[in-house]
Amino acid sequence: QGPLVESGGGLVQAGGSLRLSCAASGRILSTYTWGWFRHSLGKEREFVSNINWSGGRTRYAESVKGRFTIWRDIATNTVYLEMKNLTLEDTAVYYCAATPEFDSGVGEYDYWGQGTEVTVFS
User: Fold this and answer.
1) Is 99 within 8 Å of 32 (Cβ atoms)?
2) Looking at per-residue confidence, does 28 or 90 come out higher?
C-alpha cells in the first residue's frame, strides 16, 4: 500500500449519499493540504475539493458545492469527503492526494492514493 489509502466507494442510487475516507501513513506530513480528485471515462482528472492542514481552508469545485463536504481528523491523519444528493455525473474513480501548498495544481500533488470507485445509478 502507498502512503494514502482511500475507502468508502461503492454503488449508490441517484440522490443518495456516500462518505469517502483517506488515511495517510506517517510519511504524509500533518501540515500538508489534502485534496480529492475524480476521473471518469472519457474525461480528464477533475479537482473535487481540498482542505488545508488545519482544516480552516477548504475549496470545492462548482459542480459539487453544497453537496459535498470535506473535513479532516488531524489526530488520525484521515480526510473525509461526504457526498450527498449524488447524480449520475458523480460516477468516477475518486482519488485522494496530498501537497505542501493549498493552491497547488493537480500536477503539484506529491502523493496519490490508488482510488476508490463510485458508481451512481438511476
Assistant:
1) yes
2) 90
